[in-house]
Write a structure and sequence with these properties.
The chain is α+β, with helices and mostly antiparallel strands. It has two domains: 31 residues; 94 residues, N-utilization substance G protein NusG, insert domain (mini-chromosome maintenance (MCM) complex, domain 2, Sandwich), CATH 2.60.320. 21% of the residues lie in helices and 31% in strands. The protein contains one helix and seven strands, in the order αβββββββ. The strands form two sheets. It has a four-stranded antiparallel β-sheet, with no helix packed on it. Strands 3-4-5 form a three-stranded antiparallel β-sheet, with no helix packed on it. The longest helix has 30 residues. The radius of gyration is 23 Å and the shape is rod-shaped.
Amino acid sequence: MGSFVQRNRATIVCAAVIALLLAGLALWASGARGAGGRLVALVHDGVGQVHELPLDTDATLEVTTSLGSNTIVVEDGTVRVASADCPNGTCLHEQPIGEPGKQIICLPHKLWIEVVPEGENGGEMDVSLVEGSEDVDLVAR
């Protein structure tokens, strides 16, 4: 009977360890999205400013520089370009983004949008690489 009790204890201990590991994994995964799991859209404009828009709050941002104007809309946890006065407007036809690692780039306006966990700085776009590309829009994923 002693070995039966020891096996049951071992099973209970193993189950408890697995439950703790799963709980820790779930907590780590939720923390990977930033404080409270909040995501933000970083809108980098053509003059070097960065505008931060939380994806959990619907909002509209007008970005106007000497290169042109864009209207950025956050709704339902995603961000998109709603209007742009660039020549071909390719960025207007792109799907809204709402996950880290996704970007929308409007080359004529040297404007780009990325989604990152709140508190992170995000990446970089080297605008010197797109100088002279006023007739081109690009979406990078």
